[in-house]
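Example 3.2
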Amino acid sequence: MKSSSERNIIYREIRPADDAVIAALIRKSLIQHKLDIPGTVFFDKGLDHLSELYGKDSAYYVLEDKNGDVIGGIGYARLSFMSDTAELQKLYLDDKAKGAGIGYEMIAFIEEKMRESGFKRAYLETHENLQAAIHIYEKSGYRDIERPKEVVHSTMNRFFIKELI
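Structure, written as tokens:
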């Protein structure tokens, strides 16, 4: 499998100029998977200005291809209801970049960022409609857990955790 440098892909922190591109990418993916419904990030007010939402105890990164086009994004934020845990958030990849192992690379990248920030576990929420994502999470070492009572996105129905140590 080629590394991001061999593919000429760079990871960088999100900037305000990326907000509309990332929001469109996320909404397109949710529409494709019939998740453009209440209780998903599709309707989150912050989706159109993600660059403003990440900072202390959180970060969001975009992936740029060799042409400088944003082809994906992934982030994390401290999870308030589990100690030493960060939530893996908003892993989305443009259709043209899928199937090359980039999803696994994105997860490894963000897990390293979580470790660097002192987190010991990674948590994530997803939906059963996102079978390709669930496959990647499971192959990356995430294990199913019961739905935490504190879950915000009521439509999410699959929950995972991974030890980062």
